[in-house]
Write a structure and sequence with these properties.
The complex is a heterodimer. Chain A has strands at 4-7, 10-13, 19-25, 31-37, 44-49, 56-57, 64-66, 76-78, 87-94, 105-106, 110-114. In chain A, a hairpin with a 6-residue loop joins strand 4 (31-37) and strand 5. By secondary structure, chain A is an all-beta fold. In chain A, the strands form 2 sheets. In chain A, strands 2, 4, 5, 6, 9, 10 and 11 form a 7-stranded mixed beta sheet that branches. The N and C termini of chain A lie far apart (35 Å). Chain B has no helices and 11 strands. In chain B, a hairpin with a 6-residue loop joins strand 4 (32-37) and strand 5. Chain B is mostly beta strands. The chains are: A mainly beta, B mainly beta. Chain A binds chain B through residues 40-45, 58, 90, 98-99, 101-109, and chain B through 4, 8, 30-31, 33, 35, 41-45, 48, 50, 87, 89, 91, 95-102.
Amino acid sequence: IAGITQAPTSQILAAGRRMTLRCTQDMRHNAMYWYRQDLGLGLRLIHYSNTAGTTGKGEVPDGYSVSRANTDDFPLTLASAVPSQTSVYFCASSATGSTGAGELFFGEGSRLTVL
Amino acid sequence: GQNIDQPTEMTATEGAIVQINCTYQTSGFNGLFWYQQHAGEAPTFLSYNVLDGLEEKGRFSSFLSRSKGYSYLLLKELQMKDSASYLCAVMDSNYQLIWGAGTKLIIKP
């Protein structure tokens, strides 16, 4: 049982480079999310997708883009990485519905360092 | 603005009881969640409260008072493996989760 798989688990990246973080789920959840987690701050939503083919902006979307071509995959792209994007990135998914939308299942995280 | 407050760090003794508080101010309320996150790992779901009162699940209980904008997570019979961060999150009127910064719980023998 895989749940949610993220790749890479860790990456060091030069500023200005393009980077895609991959996320795949096998639970057939409709909703998927990308969060970043920084020390001393709560999880902050970057982008989300309520269903395949749709995406929306979260609290901190600038500098990031996502796509949702199918139910299982939800990649996050940094077009031109900057040091402030150094963080731990978590992909998550949830079933649809008001309460189901709150119980998130998280991937193991991708630790990104931008130099 | 929307705000979730919880203590940054707490220390407790193995076998004891600890209560982690969470206060919130959000645009609407559609439920409050507690997640556990061990260092270097992903958060995992612990509990959900949408009505006032206490929800018990084994050694863990969660309480909610909507009128006070207040919740707590109660951990009984503490074990060393309970050392983790505990994240409080509130679902607002748009069904988006607003997260607290988390409470790091340190368990001492």
